[in-house]
Design brief:
- Transaldolase is important for the balance of metabolites in the pentose-phosphate pathway.
- The protein is an alpha/beta fold and 217 residues long.
- The protein is built from eleven helices and eight strands.
- Helix 4 links the parallel strand 3 (54-57) and strand 4.
- The termini are far apart.
- The longest helix has 20 residues, at 196-215.
- It is globular.
- It binds SN-glycerol-3-phosphate (G3P).
- SN-glycerol-3-phosphate binds next to helix 7.
Length: 217
């Protein structure tokens, strides 16, 4: 499973990237807004040091403007993927962009039908939002299983990015369900490598080692 970082925070991305665990980055208008920096400036900065796809989202919703905007965003760096919302105009834009070799990430996917349509339209990535489905009292992980089955059934090449991941369990279950990629918020990422029993184990090994050294002095 590839790990993408779901943030536009450069410091957070640098820290995880230095661990060798960042395979790419996804951003959206809300994440850009949170950083309060110029859209192009922050995306090109991220793209300059992350060796993997960086998703940057269009902010228009009609086909013509989306395609125009996507063509411009795609020029910012070689590893840019243009994020397109899952709408009728979005599907048309994904189709047009895929034909001219611009990689797309079709976002805001909440059903198998939407994912299947985006994949058929030629999306490089499709992004089902697990957490937001759970928020509705439904099962976000089930959608990952179902989309994986459907893509495999028909040999469709889009990769599934499990998005809107909120918990360790979401990540683990998305991996078990076969999502190609998980896009993980920076703050959650840091929680994934810790476990109270690991911390406790280190403390007790350290204590026993210190006692052994004392005894054998
Ligand atoms: O990648 C999509 C993600 O940013 C949405 O997450 O937590 O706002 O549902 P969330």
């Amino acid at each position: 499973m590839k790990f993408f970082l779901d943030t536009a925070n450069v410091d957070q991305i640098k820290r995880i990237n230095d661990l060798g665990l960042c395979d790419g980055v996804t951003t959206n208008p809300s994440l850009i807004n949170k950083e309060g920096r110029d859209f192009k400036e922050v995306v090109t900065e991220i793209a300059s040091f992350v060796d993997g796809p960086i998703s940057a989202e269009v902010t228009s919703y009609d086909y013509e403007t989306m395609v125009k905007e996507a063509r411009e965003i795609a020029k910012w760096a070689d590893n840019i993927v243009v994020k397109i919302p899952m709408t009728e105009d979005g599907l048309k834009a994904v189709n047009t962009l895929s034909k001219v070799g611009i990689k797309t990430n079709c976002t805001l996917i909440f059903s198998v039908a939407q994912g299947l349509m985006a994949a058929k339209a030629g999306a490089t990535y499709i992004s089902p939002f697990i957490g937001r489905i759970d928020d509705m009292g439904e099962d976000g992980i089930r959608l990952i299983y179902d989309l994986k089955t459907v893509l495999d059934n028909y040999g469709l090449e889009s990769e599934i990015i499990a998005a809107s991941i909120r918990t360790n369990k979401h990540l683990e279950e998305a991996a078990i369900a076969g999502a190609h990629i998980a896009t993980i918020p920076g703050t959650l990422f840091e929680k994934l490598w810790t476990h109270p029993l690991t911390t406790q184990g280190i403390e007790s090994f350290k204590k026993d080692w210190d006692s052994f050294i004392e005894k054998t002095k």
